[in-house]
Every structure is written in C-alpha cells, then in structure tokens.
Amino acid sequence: MLSQPMPPKQEADMELYAAIDLHSNNSVVVVTDASDHVVLAKRFRNDLEAIVTALRSCAGEVRAVAVESTYNWYWLVDGLRSAGFDVRLVNTAAVEQYDGLKHGDDFSDGKHLAQLLRLGILVNSRRESNGKSKGIGNRKCGNKHLSWAFIEAAHHAVRYDPSIRRFYERRRAKTLAVVAIKAVAHKLARACYYIMRDGVPYDGARAFA
C-alpha cells in the first residue's frame, strides 16, 4: 500500500526565528523561517508596541527572539517577555560563531543572529531585570561584570566623545559593529589600567590614536 503524502505545512505551523539589532533610537527586526528565508526585515523606531505587532503579524510561530545585549536592552527584553515571547539576551562579544564575521549591515547581522538562534547556538545569557537572576553565562569572558561594564562604557563613549566615535567608525567600516565596540571597550580598559598603574590622568588622544 502506498503511503499517503504528508499535507503541506500551513503558514500557521511555520517555525520562525527573530533577531533584533537594538540601537539607541531604532531597532532592526529580522525574522526568518526554518529554511533561513527572510520573512520580515524592517527598521522600527524604539516602540515596543510596534515591534510586538510586527512579530505577531508574521505568518507562523515565533519560537524565540534574540536581542543583542546593548546598554539599553531592559525595556525591550522585559516588554517582549511580558508579551509572551521567548527572548534570548545575547552578548555577541561572547558568541564565538559571531565574532569576527563580516556582514554588510544591520539587516544581514540580524539574519545571522536569527540563523544562530535556529541552530541552537545562542543560549540565554540570563541577565535580566526586575529582580530576576543576572550575570549567569558568558563565563569565558574573564570578569563578566567588568567586561559588561566596559562594553556599556564603550557604547556611551561612542555617543558622546568625538574622537572615540571616529575610532569606532574606522573599525566599523572594516568589521561588525559588535567587534568595533569590543575594540573601544578594550581601549578603555587599557586606559584604565595605565591610569591606575601610573597614577596619570586619562589621555583620550593617546588612548585612541
């Protein structure tokens, strides 16, 4: 007896994987299916309702959402979890498969994060707010608290210090944004080391020459 053909997979049954590249005033949302086809790729202003609506409008089930753990992730991660999404807060600086890869822009970076999410490479770093557990994961980054602090300091420095912004843009032109931010954080960490070791004032021109 011939076996009956399997019915085609309905849109409502599609497994989707989302990634959000979060910036200070906008977010790039990329959603892919189980075959890495892009279902949604759009830049939104940082508005929780708009992002949730976009994710829910996709034909299929969003299995998980990867969010880069930049300095301003709290509102987005908490909001998405409250809306019922499985959110994976990702420190891309600690993801070996992400580091050093070159992609064209925020959209291709988002697609790559979604692909890693589908492959099960990204796990939740479990840094949460509102009294929940923090600092679990990313154990190969040395002092995780200090590493996190310098990454956040790097984001603020890029926004407010012109010389550091120029250094960041030069690096960003050659590699991923996350790698460029790591380079800024490394420079800041080295500057702090020499300030404490030698008792000298901070010299931005020398640190980011």
Q: Layout of SSEs?
A:
Blueprint (H helix, E strand, L loop, with lengths): L14 E8 L3 E8 L4 E8 L2 H10 L3 E8 L5 H9 L4 E4 L15 H13 L25 H17 L1 H11 L4 H22 L5 H4 L2
Parallel strand pairs: 1-4, 4-5
Antiparallel strand pairs: 1-2, 2-3
* CATH homologous superfamily placement of the largest domain: ATPase, nucleotide binding domain
Any idea what the radius of gyration is? 19 Å
Number of helical regions: 7
Quaternary = single chain
What topology, given as strand order, has the largest sheet? 3-2-1-4-5
Quantity of strands, as a count? 5
Taking the alpha carbons of the first and last residues, their distance comes to 75 Å
* Morphology: elongated
The fraction of residues assigned to DSSP E strands is: 15-25%
Per the CATH scheme, the topology name of the largest domain is Nucleotidyltransferase, domain 5
CATH top level class name of the largest domain = Alpha Beta
Q: Could you estimate the helical fraction of the residues in percent?
A: 40-55%
Q: Specify the structural class.
A: alpha/beta
Poorly predicted ranges (pLDDT <50, ≥5 residues)?
Answer: 1-9, 125-142
Order of helices and strands: EEEHEHEHHHHH
Number of domains: 2
By CATH, the architecture of the largest domain is named: 2-Layer Sandwich
Instruction: State mean pLDDT (0 to 100 scale).
Output: 78
* Sheet of most strands: 5 strands, mixed
